């Protein structure tokens, strides 16, 4: 059982800078949890607290149900992959991978076997005797991973391990990393600022902002049911309008957002007069150039009429930034270019009330 | 004719206002090297084969008599070894004292404090060797601080003068050359990425093991270049042995000075200088070899 438990972890630096403010998280055995957030949100500090490079000002850090708050990193049985890989430049690939075993006093035959096993795992068996600077970025990344898991640590900690790779390689490594993590069934905590990476790799993601978790949950939950406007905006793209609930009838809320009036079926947690954020995803908007009746009451959908301000072709979809003429800009996307609207063309976006989330402000 | 059309490179040279400019630019460092370094060295070699005439004069000859005399004398066998020992002990002491100091300063988080510490170390270089040598002469004399404190602590039975002595010489040398060692090591230690040490810790290595396996090998370049620097400087030092040592403590550099200044035997002084230079050269060669043998070292 390799669980990682964080209970109300707070980290304050001299000068009263609070990097982490009372976060709690339990990572189960074999689980892959990602801490994701913008830079400076405290995710790296949280990871370094688990690693033992930082000590929490308050709170409890547990690995395998043992309190490790003051246990130094070398006594925690962790494996860590660093953003710059941190391979020892004066050691060969084999010496790098075998390092954790060597300092544990294993005999050389056993180290040799394990090194070969690890090289097989990361599919780089021929690099044994190379020096790190003779490897490509992707290879260095794999060796760093092999080195981290060679001593069979309880927990694998990944600190932005893919940030320095180019996009193509990064996507390959995301799949690789996940494959290896599943194969070893090792409890893993990843830190990244890349929300796509978080969504694609993890069992659960913890979205962090300003030293605190905004939401912890499975990627699809976090994406489709963001708990806060911040999460909605950080994970994926979202249109966010602020307004006041002006009516609730038959499970359909009307939200007055200045010029735009939104309809939503997400009425569970809102009451008349509440200040809310109406949040909806671009892919939930249907895009049309034809002017249909702006009928927002009948079928309970919201209609935005406007002109195309920016049209972006991203390969797998077309993104329309629509100027609704009221100062608000709405983003809608299409899989294929059916609409065929150009910039400055009139366009209509339609949102079903079931796809409009209302989040308390 | 199209074949006569100049290529790009040719046309640039042909259109040059002064086509030989590049030779002039290249020849400047060559001229400086030749005039101020190679020529004096050659003169020294030539003079070392001259014959001495009583009264500080010499006459051209081509004789190895000076070399034969030197290699057969106690000067070479005794003083050369002694000089190397002094330089070696100075270097080793500077390394042992300097490494922890440099490591401490390099590992400070605050850039301000790193600068403050380095400035303090550099500030001792503002004074010349001579003044610092005299300072140690005063400090170590019988009624001064060091012997008084040492005797009150029971290290010395009574406050006696510790200067001139071998110990005084080494103390003075270490004091003078320590900054060179610390500055060289500091640069080298700063270049070791923090994440390498953290990686080692995360893999289960304790701080001392991490130091031995990661920091020390990665600062080998700094250790070798710092040591070479201090060793070579120590070999050539003249003032410190004169002030802090008695004749038994005098190194080759002092003896070279005596040959020229007191004995008036310039060819023999030149001979000793040449041999000392060759020894320094050999040590540098070994140092370069050590540096070259290690990958990724910084000088």
UniProtKB/TrEMBL annotation, chain A:
List the GO cellular component terms: ATP-binding cassette (ABC) transporter complex
Q: Name one Pfam family in it.
A: TOBE_2
Q: What top-level class of enzyme does the UniProt entry assign?
A: translocase
Reactions catalysed: tungstate(in) + ATP + H2O = tungstate(out) + ADP + phosphate + H(+); L-arabinose(out) + ATP + H2O = L-arabinose(in) + ADP + phosphate + H(+); D-xylose(out) + ATP + H2O = D-xylose(in) + ADP + phosphate + H(+)
Keyword Transport appears in the UniProt entry: yes
Tell me the superkingdom of the source.
Answer: Archaea
Topology relative to the membrane: Peripheral membrane protein
EC number(s) per entry: 7.3.2.6, 7.5.2.13
Report domain ABC transporter positions.
4-235
* Gene3D superfamilies xrefs: 2.40.50.100, Nucleic acid-binding proteins, P-loop containing nucleotide triphosphate hydrolases
Where is it predominantly found?
membrane
Gene Ontology molecular function terms on file? ABC-type tungstate transporter activity; ATP binding; ATP hydrolysis activity
Where can this protein be found? Cell membrane
Q: Does the keyword Nucleotide-binding apply?
A: yes
Q: Which UniProt keywords apply?
A: ATP-binding, Molybdenum, Nucleotide-binding, Transport
Q: Which PANTHER family match?
A: SPERMIDINE/PUTRESCINE IMPORT ATP-BINDING PROTEIN POTA, SPERMIDINE_PUTRESCINE IMPORT ATP-BINDING PROTEIN POTA
- Subunit structure of this entry? The complex is composed of two ATP-binding proteins (WtpC), two transmembrane proteins (WtpB) and a solute-binding protein (WtpA).
Describe its function. Part of the ABC transporter complex XacGHIJK involved in the uptake of xylose and arabinose. Responsible for energy coupling to the transport system.
Which protein family is it in?
A: Belongs to the ABC transporter superfamily. Carbohydrate uptake transporter-1 (CUT1) (TC 3.A.1.1) family. Belongs to the ABC transporter superfamily. Sulfate/tungstate importer (TC 3.A.1.6) family.
* Protein name as it appears in the record: Molybdate/tungstate import ATP-binding protein WtpC
Instruction: Identify the species of origin.
Output: Haloglomus irregulare
Automatic annotation (TrEMBL), chain B:
Its recorded name reads ABC transmembrane type-1 domain-containing protein
Q: What domain of life?
A: Archaea
The entry sums up its family as follows: Belongs to the binding-protein-dependent transport system permease family. CysTW subfamily.
Please report the record's description of how this protein sits within the membrane.
Multi-pass membrane protein
Give the InterPro entries listed for this entry: MetI-like, MetI-like_sf
- Annotated TM spans: 30-50, 80-104, 116-139, 166-186, 221-240, 268-291
The places in or outside the cell where this protein is found are: Cell membrane
Q: What GO cellular component entries does it have?
A: plasma membrane
Look up and give the organism this protein is from.
Haloglomus irregulare
ABC transmembrane type-1 domain mapped to chain residues: 80-287
Q: Which GO terms describe its biological process?
A: transmembrane transport
Keywords from the UniProt entry: Cell membrane, Membrane, Transmembrane, Transmembrane helix, Transport
Query: Is Transmembrane one of the keywords UniProt gives this record?
Result: yes
Pfam families reported in the protein's UniProt record: BPD_transp_1
């Amino acid at each position: 059982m390799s669980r990682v438990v964080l209970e109300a972890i707070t980290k304050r630096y001299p000068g009263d800078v609070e990097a982490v403010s009372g976060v709690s998280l339990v990572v189960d055995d074999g689980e892959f949890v990602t801490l994701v957030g913008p830079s400076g949100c405290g995710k790296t500090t949280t990871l370094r607290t688990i690693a033992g490079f930082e000590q929490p000002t308050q709170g409890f850090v547990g690995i395998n149900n043992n309190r490790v708050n003051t246990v130094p990193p070398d006594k925690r049985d962790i494996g860590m992959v660093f953003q710059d890989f941190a391979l020892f430049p004066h050691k060969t690939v084999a010496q790098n991978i075998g390092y954790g075993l060597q300092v544990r006093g294993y005999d050389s035959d056993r180290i040799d076997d394990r090194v070969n096993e690890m090289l097989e795992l990361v599919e780089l068996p021929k690099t044994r005797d190379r020096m790190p600077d003779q490897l490509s970025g992707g290879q260095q990344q794999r060796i760093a991973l092999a080195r981290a898991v060679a001593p069979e640590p309880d927990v694998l900690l990944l600190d932005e391990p893919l940030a320095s790779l180019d996009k193509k390689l990064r996507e390959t490594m995301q799949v690789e990393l996940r494959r290896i993590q599943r194969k070893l069934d090792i409890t893993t905590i990843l830190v990244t600022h890349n929300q796509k990476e978080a969504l694609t790799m993890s069992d659960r993601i913890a979205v962090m902002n300003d030293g605190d978790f905004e939401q912890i949950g499975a990627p699809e939950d976090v994406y489709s049911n963001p708990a806060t406007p911040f999460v909605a905006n950080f994970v994926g793209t979202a249109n966010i309008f602020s307004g006041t609930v002006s009516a609730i009838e038959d499970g359909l809320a009307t939200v007055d957002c200045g010029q735009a009036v939104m309809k939503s079926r997400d009425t569970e947690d809102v009451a008349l007069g509440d200040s809310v954020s109406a949040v909806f995803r671009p892919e939930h908007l249907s895009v049309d150039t034809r002017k249909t009746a702006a009928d927002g009451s009948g079928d309970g959908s919201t209609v935005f009429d406007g002109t195309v301000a920016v049209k972006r072709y991203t390969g797998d979809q077309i993104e329309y930034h629509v100027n609704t003429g009221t100062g608000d800009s709405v983003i809608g996307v299409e899989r294929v270019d059916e609409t065929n609207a150009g910039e400055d063309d009139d366009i209509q976006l339609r949102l079903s009330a079931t796809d409009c989330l209302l989040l308390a402000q | 004719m199209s074949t006569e059309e100049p290529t790009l490179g040719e046309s640039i040279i042909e259109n040059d206002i002064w086509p030989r400019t590049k030779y002039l630019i290249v020849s400047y460092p060559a001229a400086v090297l030749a005039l101020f370094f190679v020529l004096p060295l050659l003169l020294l070699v030539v003079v070392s084969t001259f014959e001495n005439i009583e009264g500080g004069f010499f006459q051209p000859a081509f004789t190895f008599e000076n070399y034969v005399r030197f290699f057969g004398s106690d000067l070479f066998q005794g003083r050369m070894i002694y000089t190397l020992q002094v330089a070696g002990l100075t270097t080793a002491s500077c390394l042992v004292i300097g490494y922890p100091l440099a490591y401490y300063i390099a590992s400070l988080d605050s850039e301000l404090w790193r600068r403050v510490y380095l400035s303090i170390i550099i500030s001792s270089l503002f004074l010349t060797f001579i003044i610092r040598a005299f300072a140690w002469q005063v400090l170590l004399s019988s009624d001064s601080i060091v012997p008084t404190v040492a005797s009150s602590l029971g290290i010395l039975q009574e406050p006696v003068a510790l200067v001139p002595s071998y110990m005084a010489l080494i103390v003075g040398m270490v004091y003078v050359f320590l900054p060179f060692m610390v500055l060289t090591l500091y640069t080298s230690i700063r270049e070791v990425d923090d994440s390498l040490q953290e990686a080692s810790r995360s893999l289960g290595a304790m701080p001392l093991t991490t130091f031995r396996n990661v920091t020390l090998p990665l600062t080998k370049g700094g250790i070798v270049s710092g040591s070479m620097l201090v060793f070579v400087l120590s070999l050539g030092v003249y003032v410190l042995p004169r002030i802090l040592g008695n004749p038994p403590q005098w190194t080759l550099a002092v003896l070279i000075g005596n040959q020229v200044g007191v004995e008036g035997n310039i060819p023999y002084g030149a001979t000793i200088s040449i041999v000392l230079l060759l020894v320094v050269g050999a040590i540098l060669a070994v140092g370069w070899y050590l540096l070259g043998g290690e990958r990724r070292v910084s000088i």
